[in-house]
Design brief:
Chains A, B: The active site is at 146 (acyl-thioester intermediate), 260 (proton acceptor). Chains A, B: NADP(+) binds at residues 29-32, 57-58, 176-177, 335. The structure is a homodimer. Chain A is of the alpha/beta class. Chain A contains ten helices and 17 strands. The first copy, chain A, starts with 6 loop residues before the first helix and ends with a helix.
Chain lengths: 354, 354
């Protein structure tokens, strides 16, 4: 499908010429921006040129990529000229402003913000789950919420084998979901607590040292659920292709740096043996089963951090469903990688494959 | 019911004399032991004399109580002579060994271990929930698992109004549940991580700095659930008087010092409006509703720590149950107080009231 390639690459492909894509990263200096650089590098992504874009405040910073240092530029009118592929990770407002510019310049945009995720014209993609949704994209692809991306990697292989009809989730979300400044605040607040000193939170609304709190997204008065919970529900349904799937959810921020954990209960149409679920998860892409009862070793954030695979374990029958139709699992994934940058790079790989 | 009083106090009561009870604490130097001293003091518990008992290793330590210092004694054959009321918090094995001695000496035992919790002859009591179970006790009363004690304070007032028929819980458990040494390890491991130094866990089986892990209790191969999860299920059922209640549960240890949090979904026999649940919880003993959507302020461990009340918030309809019969709540309680010492002291208050 060369028509889904960035136009200039498609033209080169039609002419039989190979040309490496010109890449831009908007929001290069943030936590996800750094992770994008890491993922492009670690996956050997083809890069003909790399333009790092950020706010004027961050312009001039130099970031390492493949042994070079690249100077961050302030976002401007001409920033996307000559760009084939742009990764956006600078918030929904900037995504809405910049997407038309980048697309007019011929770039395919992979957007990490929530701006377009529920737009029916924009595919919302987790490559292991719904790569087919990319077909015929119009140059703009949405990268999902971190919880939805991580959870669906573990849910999809089970659902393919036996339909899921209900989910219940409680999350244990890391600081990184609120950005690099929140990660720094967790460390600073904790250091102050250990010294017995007071600390006033600036980035997050609550004390973070040895504490946890309901996710800081704005609360929806009608449902009593916060914006993060509603995103996870809507995006999980969309990625799984199950627009009516009932999903109960509680999103909690825990004092962990960069990997999200989630306790998930799945109700299937019929009973599913835990052994069968384990075999399905072991065979599925993007997952690693960590489920060693003898060693009491299950998925942990410190072991998921910096790792591409989502970890899954505690695969067992749910004691809360006497019908035997429900299983419980525990899932942990790097919020900056599978929850953001890695998934975006995987989408870009599919786009380039055309 | 003077027959439920410790014998010597019952005799004094029958003779019309008031006599303050002689108290012993077995396991006085542990985290719960310290919290017992705090609770006896803060609640103005009547204390005629106080004997602090521990292993020979801890004997000779001096602990403060009401402005005095009391020397810890090694547990011996005669430790319970003259004792009216003994609090045990030194593990199930020592509880099994010492309970017959203390009872033979005429003491009523309130046991914080798991040794007798499922013994049909021993009441398992959360005073706000099932104080009536104390009637006719035989001198030995079990204090529940911390999660079960904290959860049932919030569940009982709802269940009394409308029967619960199913529960789902995910816990966020503090270090204190594994003792004072685990609390110290969390601080030491975190300090080392902040300095960029390696740290080898000694108390808990996994790295604890900015990390979380499946509860360290031994795994039951048959159910795939750990001992903590099975305790919470069995004890919650027993305290609520619902021996068949299906309870799905995941217990996770988080890097928090001394308050447990839990995301709970309750399925009722019929729909329950969140507003009605909130009113019931606001009127219930031992609870404080913290549920301010505008300020995004909900129960947090740092606000529950050192506090007697269990905090409850995030009271809302469960999006995972289209029938409208399910609610979700978020509950946080001090693991050392309502989860252990305070509940034991409240039981003792009921015993003394006779």
């Amino acid at each position: 499908m060369p028509d889904t390639l960035p136009p200039s690459l498609a033209a080169a492909a039609r002419a039989g010429a190979a040309r490496l894509p010109q890449i831009a990263i908007l929001g290069a200096t943030g936590a996800v921006g750094h992770a994008l650089l890491e993922s492009l590098e670690s996956r050997g992504f083809p890069v003909g040129g790399l333009r790092l874009l950020a706010s004027p405040r961050s312009a001039g910073q130099r970031l390492p990529f493949r042994g070079q240092e690249i100077t961050v530029e302030a976002l401007g009118e001409d920033s996307f000229k000559g760009i084939d592929l742009a990764f956006f990770s600078a918030g929904a407002t900037l995504s809405r402003q910049s997407a038309p510019l980048a697309r007019a310049a011929g770039a395919v945009v992979v957007d990490n913000s929530s701006a377009f995720r529920m737009d029916p014209a924009v595919p919302l993609v987790v490559p292991e789950v719904n790569a087919a949704a990319l077909a015929g994209h119009a140059g703009l692809i949405a990268n999902p919420n971190c919880v939805a991306a991580i959870a669906t990697v573990a849910l999809a292989p089970l659902h393919r084998a036996l339909p899921i009809r209900r989910l219940s989730m409680a999350t244990y979300q890391a600081a990184s979901g609120a950005g690099a400044a929140a990660m720094a605040e967790l460390e600073q607040a904790t250091a102050a607590a250990l010294r017995g000193e007071a600390f006033t939170p600036r980035v997050l609304p609550h004390p973070y040292a040895f504490n946890l709190f309901s996710h800081n997204a704005t609360m929806d008065p009608e449902t009593g659920h916060n914006g993060e919970e509603l995103k996870v529900v809507a995006e999980t349904r969309r990625i799984m292709g199950l627009p009516e799937l009932p999903i109960g959810i509680t999103c909690i921020r825990v004092p962990v740096l960069r990997a999200h954990a989630m306790a998930i209960t799945l109700e299937f149409d019929e009973p599913m043996a835990p052994e069968r679920a384990r075999a399905l998860l072991e065979a599925a892409p993007g997952l690693r089963v960590v489920d060693d009862a003898a060693a009491n070793h299950y998925p942990m954030p410190v072991e998921a951090s910096g790792r591409e695979e989502v970890l899954v374990g505690r695969i067992r029958r749910d004691l809360g469903d006497p019908s035997g139709r429900s299983l419980a699992i525990f899932v942990v994934g790097d919020q900056l990688l599978k929850g953001a940058a890695l998934n975006a790079v995987q989408i870009a790989e599919l786009v380039l494959r055309g």
